[in-house]
Amino acid sequence: MMRIVLLGPPGSGKGTQAKLMEQRFGIPQISTGDIFRKAIAGKTALGAQVEKYLSAGTLVPDDLTIGLVRERLMQKDVERGFVLDGFPRTVPQATGMEEILRERGWELDAVININIPTEVLVPRLALRRTCPSCGMMYHMEHRPPDRDGRCTVCGSSVVTRPDDNVETVRKRLAVYFAQTSALVDYFRKKSKLIDINGGSGVDEVFASVHAALKQRCKDLA
Q1: Active-site choice (80, 102, 161, 214)
Q2: 221 lies in a domain?
Q3: Which of 89, 143, 150, 216 is catalytic?
Q4: pLDDT at 151
Q5: Nearest residue to 117 via CA among 182, 181, 165, 173
Q6: Which residue range(s) make up the domain with 189?
Q7: How does pLDDT run across 28-44, given as a tens digit for each residue?
Q8: Is 3 in the active site?
Q9: Is residue 39 part of a domain?
């Protein structure tokens, strides 16, 4: 049983690592982005509120985000553990998460913080491409699409996301680091934080994550 929070800036490979943890450890990846989309698609009351904020291009308030995460953490598939991807992003969200865990009699095992220099992240994000149909991610240098720029999964033409241009990338990274610095300190003071070097390949990063979690969670194979 393992309950993990995964932190990392845009382009750090956090989502990929979350998927690998899901597969290796048999625990669900819980992404706030996925939660938002499902709530909106399901036309729930909370989903309607989320859609209002997202449509206006504003941040979803902490209390609303916490409410949606609370609903997700009440589902049966999280009883063996989970990896939270994209939540919490602020200290109030962290305290809200801890309250939910206390209600269930659970405790957070570790917070994996993937570190990677900004000078690496900017070109990585600027060279990223996305399939608008199936969501598959590509990188023009390390993981390119087909020669004609089409997705290898569904055949759609891949695109550059509007927020993946260099200027926007730098702004996104500045916002991320400003927003999460207090959160990193919060978890470090609680002795929950595990810093991981995210500058190497996917497999090497996951090996570091796995080794760190084995030390923290003694029953982990």
Answers
A1: 161
A2: no
A3: 89
A4: 94
A5: 173
A6: 2-216
A7: 999 988 888 888 888 88
A8: no
A9: yes
147 an active-site residue?
Answer: no
pLDDT of residue 220: 67
- Would residue 161 show up in a list of annotated catalytic residues for this protein? yes
Residue tagged active-site, from 3, 124, 128, 192: 128
Buried b vs exposed e over 120-130: b needs ≥16 C-beta within 10 Å? ebbebbbbbbb
pLDDT at 92: 94
Catalytic site residue from 3, 72, 124, 172: 172
Count the domains in the chain: 1
Going by C-alpha positions, the residue among 115, 153, 108 that lies closest to residue 133 is: 153
**103-122 pLDDT, tens digit each:** 999 999 999 999 998 888 88
CATH (domain of 190): 3.40.50.300
Classify residue 57: in a domain, yes or no: yes
Paired tokens of 173: 């990274």
Catalytically annotated residue among 14, 124, 129, 192: 14
